[in-house]
């Protein structure tokens, strides 16, 4: 039984599990997405991200648990008018022209957005009269995004939306997603580009083996493993010196370039200086989201 909600919740999953025979793709997952939020689902291959999207879209039925979109069951036609999606297996007929497909979606969603606006948002103006079958992989992805733009739906599900896009297209896509969010659209995306989640998402939900293992703002996720990367050149650092220091991890050395991770860079460097280690071109950087993600999903624990 689904409860109607009239609050700020756009998406709600409560104790959702999905089994495919012996495989547990999602295991007791609960989260909400508020109206206007951009939430990124992150996780390694097979983590359960696409399964979560397909359940939220009502394409599959959860084995256990409840899901609502704006208080409605996603499998009821009523909820479909709010939603547009870019899925990994998206397809449109190759023989249609780009402009025709966008026009078709505009009519389907009875949207007031214009075809020109969608072409511009996806930088496809010059391809408007090309057949879909002639588009490159990246242009095809941009077409699927143009369909989301023209649909003008309140809620967007984007499953690995920037796969095959070049750097410039990806930047344009980020700008467009941000501007849609500023207009109050709610966006749920999956991505393997962790810098994308860092750049775009208000909140990141990290999934591994069908379970949520962390969630929060990108900086909160990073702070869960808030060590520093230290890198420098040295001509006289002896092998094994760093590995024997307490709180120094992942020591790597190649020729005279040394790198390691630590929660206490000041103390470690002070010690090295005191020992007369020659240190040049020193860099101390915060751990990026990518590193945080790898650490979280590989279940490594490190003492400080
Ligand atoms: N239709 C299906 N039948 C059987 N098993 C499935 C099915 N769909 C997904 N799975 C399994 O469920 C698990 C989660 O898959 P899912 O596609 O949701 O992962 P993902 O996080 O989206 O991965 P990727 O990043 O590779 O797209 C995997 O073990 C997958 O093999």
TrEMBL record:
InterPro entries: AAA+_ATPase (IPR003593), ABC_transporter-like_ATP-bd (IPR003439), ABC_transporter_ATP-binding (IPR050763), P-loop_NTPase (IPR027417)
GO molecular function: ATP binding
Ranges in coiled-coil conformation: none
Keyword terms of this UniProt record: ATP-binding, Nucleotide-binding, Transport
Pfam families reported in the protein's UniProt record: ABC_tran
Record-annotated membrane-spanning stretches: none
ABC transporter domain span: 11-234
PANTHER family: ABC TRANSPORTER ATP-BINDING PROTEIN
Protein name: ABC transporter ATP-binding protein
Organism from which the protein derives: Alicyclobacillus fodiniaquatilis
């Amino acid at each position: 039984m689904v409860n109607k909600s009239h609050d700020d919740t756009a998406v709600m999953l409560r104790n959702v599990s999905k089994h495919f025979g012996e495989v547990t793709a999602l295991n007791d997952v609960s989260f909400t997405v508020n109206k206007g939020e951009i939430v990124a689902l992150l996780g390694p291959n097979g983590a359960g991200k696409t399964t979560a999207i397909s359940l939220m879209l009502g394409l599959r039925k959860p084995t256990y648990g409840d899901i609502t979109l704006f208080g409605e069951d996603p499998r009821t036609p009523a909820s479909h008018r709010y939603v547009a999606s870019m899925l990994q297996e998206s397809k449109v007929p190759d023989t249609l022209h780009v402009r025709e497909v966008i026009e078709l979606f505009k009519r389907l969603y009875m949207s007031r957005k214009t075809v020109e606006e969608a072409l511009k948002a996806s930088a496809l103006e010059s391809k408007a009269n090309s057949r879909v079958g002639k588009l490159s992989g990246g242009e095809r992805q941009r077409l699927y995004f143009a369909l989301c733009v023209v649909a003008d739906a309140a809620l967007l599900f984007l499953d690995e939306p920037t796969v095959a896009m070049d750097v410039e297209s990806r930047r344009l896509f980020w700008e467009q997603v941000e501007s849609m969010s500023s207009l109050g659209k709610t966006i749920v995306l999956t991505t393997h580009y962790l810098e994308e989640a860092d750049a775009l998402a208000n909140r990141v939900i990290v999934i591994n083996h069908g379970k949520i293992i962390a969630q929060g703002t990108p900086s909160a996720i990073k702070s869960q493993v808030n060590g520093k990367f230290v890198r420098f050149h040295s001509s006289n650092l002896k092998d094994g010196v760093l590995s024997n220091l307490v709180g120094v991890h992942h020591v790597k050395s190649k020729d005279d370039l040394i790198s390691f991770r630590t929660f206490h860079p000041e103390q470690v460097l002070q010690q090295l200086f005191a020992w007369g280690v020659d240190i040049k071109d020193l860099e101390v950087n915060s751990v990026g989201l990518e590193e945080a993600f790898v650490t979280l999903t590989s279940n490594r624990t490190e003492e400080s």
